[in-house]
Specification:
- By secondary structure, the protein is an alpha/beta fold.
- Helix content is about 60%, strand content about 10%.
- It is built from 39 helices and 18 strands.
- The strands form 5 sheets. It has a 6-stranded mixed β-sheet, with helices on both faces. It has a 5-stranded mixed β-sheet with strand order 5-4-3-6-7, sandwiched between helices.
C-alpha cells in the first residue's frame, strides 16, 4: 500500500472527511465532495503541509512523507493538478532515497500520468518524473530502461529554464554515463560524462556531480588503458576539492583510492600503497566499506611482493570488517574468504585454507547470482580451490585430493555452461569465456595427471580433455548453430519461442533486482526472489512441455553436445582421417590428436616461441615484397627454417603417434595465433631450395588433404542430407566490376570475372557481375543459392571487425540503393541455405582474434549465417593464381570429390603446371583454406565425366542392339 494506516489516522486529524486508499498506481482520497466549499482553506492547508514536508525531507524523511501525502489529498479537494504532481514527485524522490524503488516507480508514473492527462503538460514536471524513473531503474539494475528515461529528460532541455535546471541536466548526463559504465560501453560513457563536466557552471549546487563525473571519467580512462589521462582527471578533481569550503573528505577518499588502483595497475607499487594508506587515514567512510576494500588492495600488493604474512593479516582484518557490514552471504565477503584461503595455502596453513575454501564454496552455492562479475568471481573462487587440492594432491601423492580437484573444476566448467545459457547478450558471454581460460587449462592438466597415474581410464580421460577444449572454441558460433539447428528440425510454434525468450529475460531482470536490493530492501528482495523462483518454475514447466512435445528442439537447444568418440573414430578409420585440436592456454599449448584407432595428448610450454615462429612464417607467406625484394636469400632461408620448425613443434610427434601411414585427410582445429597459420604450407623436411624452385619443397599438402574447423562439434553433428543439392539455384557467383565505386579506391580484379563465369558454367549456375553484383542484390538473392562464390575485394579492421570489416560490392545502378559494403555484423543477421561458400575475397579468413571465441572474420560470419562449408583466403590473393586454383577446385568438386580433396588437387595442379618457379611460392596458393564439413556434395542429376562416359557407352550398346533387332526383323519380313 502506498499509504499506511498510521498515515490515514494522522490525516483524519487534519481532515475528518478524507480517507486514503490505493487504487492502481496512484493515491485516491475520498470525501472531497463534502468539503467543496472549503477550497480556499484546503489550498492554504496544502501549502502548509508542503512547507512542513519540504523542511523535514532530509532530516526526517518518514515524517515528511506524512505531510506530502496530506498535501496530495488536500490538492484533490481544491482540484489543483499542479500541487498533486508536485506532491507525487516529492514522495517519489523521498522513497527513492529510502531505497523503496517499486513504490517510487509507481509514484513517479502517477505524477507523469497526471501531468500528461491534465491541462498542465509542464516540461519541468515531466523532467522531474522521468528523472526519478531513470534513477529507480538504475537502482534496480535495469540499465537500458534507465538510459531511455534519462535521455527523455535531456530531450526536454529546450523547454526548461536552463538556469534553474542546469544542475538537474548535469545529473542526467552523469547518470547516463554511469549506466554506460556499468554496461561496459565506455565510448558512450565518456561522451556523456564529458557533457556532465562541461555542464558545470561553477555554482556550488552542481559541484559534487562535477567531482563525481571527473572521478568516473578517470575510471573510464583507466578501463581504456589511458592511465595518464586517468591520473590527470583525478588530480583535477583533487584540486577542485581543495578550493572548495565543503567537507569533502569522503570524495578525497575515493580520489586517493582510484589513484592507488591506477598506480597498482601500472606497477608503481610504492606510490599505490601511499595512496591506499591515505584512504585509511582519512577515515571518512562511516560504513567502512571503502576502508575494507582498501585493506584488500594493500593486501594484494603485499601478496604480489611476496609478503604473505602481512597480506594475510590485512585480509583477515578486511574480512572481519566485511562480515560486520554485509554478513557472510555477500559476494564481497565470500570472495575475500576465497582469497584468504589462497594466501593461507601459500603460507602452508593447509587446514585453515581448506576450512575457508569449503566455507566459501558452500556460501557461493547458496547465493543467487545476477551478473557477469559475480559469475566470474564465483568461477575464480572455484579455480583457487581446485588449484589448492591439485597442488596438495601432487605434493602428498594423494589420489583423493586429485579427484577432489577434478570434482571442483568440473563444477566450475559446468557452472560456466549454465552461465552461458542464462546470458542473453553475446558480448557478456564472450567476456566471461575470455576470463576462464585458466580454469579450462587446469581441467586439462588435472585430467592428464589422472590419466598418467592410472586413476581414471585413458579413453574417458581423453574424451574429457577433448570436451574441455571444445568449451573454448567459438562458443557463440556453436550456440547460434545449435539454436538454428533446433529451429530447423523441431518445427516449434512461434508462441513457445516467444514465451521462452520472455521467461529468460524476466529471470535475468529478477536476478539483478534481487541482488541489488538484498541488503538495502529485504522486503523487496524477497519479492524479487519469489518472482525469480516463479519464473524458474515457468521455465521448468516449459522445458517439460518441450521434452514431451518437441524433444528434438529441447535436446538441440539445451543439451550441450558431447562427442561420441567411438562413433567418430569409426568414421575416421573408414576415411583414413585424423583430427588435431589445439588449446592455447596461459602456461601451455595443449595438443590433442585422434585417428581411427589411436589417441594422443601432449603439451608445449607457452614461452612465446610458437608465436614468434608463426608470425615469422606468415610474414614470408603473405607479403610478396618480402620474398621478391633485395633479401631473397634471407627470406627463403626463413621460409624453410620456420616452416619446418613449426611442423616439428606442432605436428610431427602427434602425427607419428597416430600413424602417418594410415592418415589421408587431416582436420586442424586451431587456437590462438595458430588460427592464422596455413598448415598446408608447413614443411615436413628442411631441404634446400634450388634457384627459388618453391614447387619442389615437401609441403604438408603433398601428404594430406588438410582442412580446418571452428570446433569439433561444428563438423561431427552434420547429417548426410547436409550435402545434398536440389536441382534449382545450385550456384550463384558474384564478381563486381567496381565501376563508379564511391567508398574507397580499389583496383579491378581482372581474373575475378572469368573465375566466376567459369565456375557458373561448371556448376550450371548464375554469374552475377558488374553493376548487378551489388550489395542489395546479394542480400535479396544469396539466401536462395546452394553454392555461393564471392570474387571481390574485402577490407579488414582488427580493432572493430564487426562493423568495419566488410565485403566490397559494386554500387547498384540506382546508386542510392546500397552503400557497397556488407559488414560482418550484417552477415550475422542473414540466413543462408548455401552448403558451400567460396570466398576468394582478400583476407576473408583473417580478422581480429578474441580469446574464447577465435578469429572474428568474414568466413566465420558466413558460418554464423548458416554455411557449413567454406573456402576462404588468409591474405590478399594474387588475382590470376586464385582464378586458376578456384576454377580447378570447382571442376574437381563436380566429379564428386571431397571439398578438401578438391582444393588439394587444385593447389597441387597449380604447383605442377606453373612455368615460372617464382610463382610457385606459397604466397600464390597456400592462402586458400577449406573450413567446416568436407564431405562431397551430392549433385542432383549429376553429369560428371564418369557418369557421362557410362551414359555414352550405355547408349552406344543400346543403339547397337537396336540396329541388330531392326535388321533381323527386316530380314524375316523379306
Amino acid at each position: 500500500m502506498l499509504l499506511r494506516s498510521t498515515y490515514f489516522l494522522n490525516l483524519l486529524l487534519v481532515l475528518s472527511l478524507v480517507s486514503i486508499g490505493v487504487f492502481g498506481q496512484g493515491i485516491s482520497c475520498e470525501g472531497k465532495q463534502a468539503v467543496k466549499m472549503h477550497k480556499e482553506e484546503a489550498y492554504q492547508a496544502t501549502e502548509a503541509s508542503f512547507q512542513k514536508g519540504t523542511k523535514l525531507k532530509y532530516s526526517s524523511p518518514q515524517e515528511s512523507i506524512k505531510y506530502f501525502e496530506q498535501a496530495y489529498c488536500l490538492s484533490e479537494i481544491h482540484e489543483d493538478a499542479s500541487w498533486k504532481v508536485i506532491a507525487l514527485i516529492e514522495l517519489a524522490r523521498i522513497h527513492l532515497r529510502l531505497d523503496h524503488f517499486q513504490l517510487s516507480l509507481e509514484l513517479a508514473r502517477e505524477a507523469r500520468k497526471v501531468n500528461e492527462t491534465s491541462d498542465l503538460t509542464r516540461p519541468d514536471f515531466a523532467f522531474s518524473a522521468l528523472s526519478v524513473l531513470g534513477k529507480c531503474h538504475m537502482n534496480l539494475n535495469m540499465l537500458p530502461e534507465a538510459i531511455d528515461y534519462l535521455k527523455q529528460t535531456l530531450a526536454l532541455q529546450r523547454n526548461l529554464d536552463r538556469e534553474t535546471f542546469n544542475n538537474h541536466i548535469q545529473t542526467s548526463y552523469y547518470n547516463i554515463g554511469k549506466c554506460y559504465v556499468d554496461l561496459g560501453d565506455y565510448s558512450h560513457a565518456a561522451d556523456y560524462l564529458q557533457k556532465a563536466i562541461l555542464q558545470y557552471n561553477g555554482e556550488e549546487l552542481g559541484f559534487r556531480t562535477y567531482l563525481y563525473s571527473l572521478i568516473l571519467m578517470a575510471r573510464v580512462s583507466h578501463y581504456n588503458d589511458d592511465s595518464a589521462k586517468a591520473l590527470l582527471l583525478l588530480d583535477q578533481a583533487a584540486e577542485a576539492c581543495e578550493r572548495s569550503e565543503q567537507d569533502l573528505s569522503s570524495v578525497h577518499q575515493w580520489i586517493h583510492y582510484f589513484r592507488g588502483v591506477v598506480l597498482q595497475q601500472n606497477l608503481v607499487l610504492h606510490q599505490a600503497v601511499e595512496e591506499f594508506t591515505k584512504v585509511i587515514d582519512l577515515n571518512a567512510d562511516p560504513s567502512q566499506t571503502l576502508h575494507a576494500k582498501t585493506k584488500l588492495r594493500i593486501s594484494e600488493l603485499y601478496r604480489d611482493n611476496g609478503q604473505f604474512d602481512e597480506a594475510a593479516s590485512l585480509m583477515e582484518s578486511s574480512l572481519a570488517h566485511l562480515e560486520k557490514i554485509y554478513g557472510n552471504q555477500h559476494r564481497t565477503t565470500i570472495i575475500t574468504r576465497s582469497q584468504l584461503a589462497s594466501l593461507q595455502a601459500d603460507l602452508g596453513a593447509n587446514d585453515l585454507a581448506e576450512q575457508n575454501f569449503n566455507r566459501a564454496t558452500e556460501e557461493w552455492i547458496n547465493l543467487p547470482v545476477d551478473s557477469f562479475q559475480l559469475h566470474e568471481e564465483h568461477l575464480l573462487a572455484l579455480e583457487a580451490m581446485g588449484a589448492f587440492y591439485f597442488k596438495k594432491g601432487l605434493n602428498n601423492d594423494q589420489e583423493e585430493d586429485l579427484l577432489e580437484a577434478q570434482r571442483i573444476i568440473h563444477l566450475a566448467t559446468h557452472w560456466l555452461e549454465q552461465i552461458r545459457s542464462d546470458f542473453i547478450h553475446d558480448e557478456s558471454k564472450r567476456l566471461l569465456l575470455a576470463r576462464v581460460i585458466p580454469i579450462l587449462e587446469m581441467a586439462l592438466e588435472i585430467n592428464h595427471e589422472l590419466i598418467s597415474r592410472g586413476i581414471i581410464e585413458e579413453g574417458a580421460g581423453f574424451a574429457n580433455m577433448f570436451n574441455i577444449t571444445e568449451r573454448n572454441k567459438h562458443a557463440l558460433l556453436q550456440d547460434e548453430l545449435r539454436e538454428t539447428e533446433a529451429l530447423k528440425f523441431a518445427s516449434i510454434p512461434d508462441h513457445l519461442l516467444q514465451q521462452e525468450k520472455e521467461i529468460r529475460t524476466a529471470m535475468a531482470v529478477a536476478r539483478q533486482s534481487y541482488f541489488k536490493s538484498k541488503n538495502s530492501q529485504p522486503e523487496f528482495a524477497e519479492a524479487q526472489l519469489e518472482r525469480l523462483l516463479d519464473e524458474q518454475e515457468e521455465l521448468n514447466a516449459l522445458k517439460t512441455k518441450l521434452v514431451d512435445e518437441y524433444p528434438d528442439y529441447y535436446e538441440l537447444r539445451y543439451q550441450l553436445p558431447e562427442v561420441d568418440f567411438d562413433k567418430l573414430q569409426t568414421k575416421l578409420l573408414a576415411e583414413q582421417g585424423a583430427i588435431v585440436e589445439f588449446f592455447w592456454g596461459h602456461s601451455f599449448v595443449y595438443i590433442l590428436g585422434l585417428s581411427g584407432n589411436k589417441r594422443y595428448f601432449t603439451k608445449l610450454p607457452q614461452d612465446g616461441s610458437i608465436e614468434a615462429l608463426t608470425s615469422q612464417f606468415n610474414q614470408q607467406l603473405s607479403d610478396a615484397e618480402v620474398f621478391q625484394g633485395e633479401n631473397k636469400a634471407e627470406a627463403d632461408s626463413l621460409l624453410l627454417t620456420a616452416g619446418h620448425q613449426l611442423y616439428q613443434v606442432l605436428l610431427k610427434e602427434t602425427l607419428d603417434s597416430l600413424g602417418t601411414q594410415d592418415i589421408k585427410s587431416l582436420t586442424i582445429i586451431p587456437d590462438g595465433c595458430l588460427a592464422s597459420l596455413p598448415f598446408s604450407a608447413l614443411l615436413s623436411s628442411n631441404g634446400s631450395l634450388p634457384v627459388h624452385n618453391y614447387a619442389g619443397l615437401d609441403y604438408l599438402v603433398k601428404q594430406y588433404e588438410i582442412s580446418y574447423a571452428f570446433a569439433l562439434n561444428t563438423i561431427t553433428d552434420l547429417s548426410p542430407e547436409d550435402n545434398e543439392l536440389s536441382a534449382d539455384n545450385v550456384f550463384g557467383g558474384y564478381a563486381p566490376s567496381y565501376q563508379g565505386i564511391k567508398n574507397i579506391n580499389v583496383g579491378k580484379l581482372s581474373g575475378a570475372l572469368s573465375e566466376v563465369q567459369n565456375a557458373a558454367k561448371i556448376m550450371t549456375g548464375d554469374a552475377i557481375t558488374g553493376f548487378q553484383a551489388s550489395e542489395s542484390n546479394f542480400k535479396r538473392q544469396a539466401g536462395e543459392y546452394q553454392i555461393l562464390q564471392l570474387a571481390m575485394h574485402a577490407q579488414l579492421d582488427s580493432k572493430d571487425p564487426l562493423y568495419n570489416s566488410f565485403l566490397l560490392f559494386n554500387n547498384a545502378e540506382s546508386s542510392n540503393e546500397d552503400n557497397d559494403s556488407l559488414t560482418i555484423a550484417e552477415l550475422y543477421q542473414m540466413k543462408l541455405k548455401a552448403k558451400l561458400a567460396v570466398l576468394s575475397a582478400c583476407n576473408s579468413g583473417s580478422g581480429a582474434y578474441r580469446t574464447g571465441e577465435g578469429v572474428i572474420s568474414l568466413s566465420r560470419a558466413f558460418a554464423y549465417a548458416g554455411c557449413p562449408s567454406l573456402v576462404s583466403s588468409q591474405w590478399v590473393l594474387p588475382d590470376r593464381a586464385s582464378s586458376e586454383i578456384i576454377t580447378h577446385f570447382f571442376r574437381k568438386l563436380k566429379t564428386g570429390a571431397r571439398k578438401s580433396e578438391a582444393l588439394r588437387s587444385a593447389q597441387l595442379a597449380y604447383l605442377q603446371d606453373i612455368q615460372d618457379p617464382m610463382y610457385s611460392h606459397p604466397y600464390y596458393w597456400a592462402g586458400l583454406m577449406p573450413i567446416g564439413n568436407m564431405e562431397a556434395l551430392q549433385f542432383a542429376n549429376d553429369t560428371s565425366d564418369e557418369q557421362a562416359a557410362l551414359f555414352f557407352f550405355g547408349a552406344l550398346i543400346l543403339s547397337f542392339v537396336g540396329v541388330r533387332i531392326f535388321l533381323q526383323r527386316r530380314g524375316s519380313i523379306a
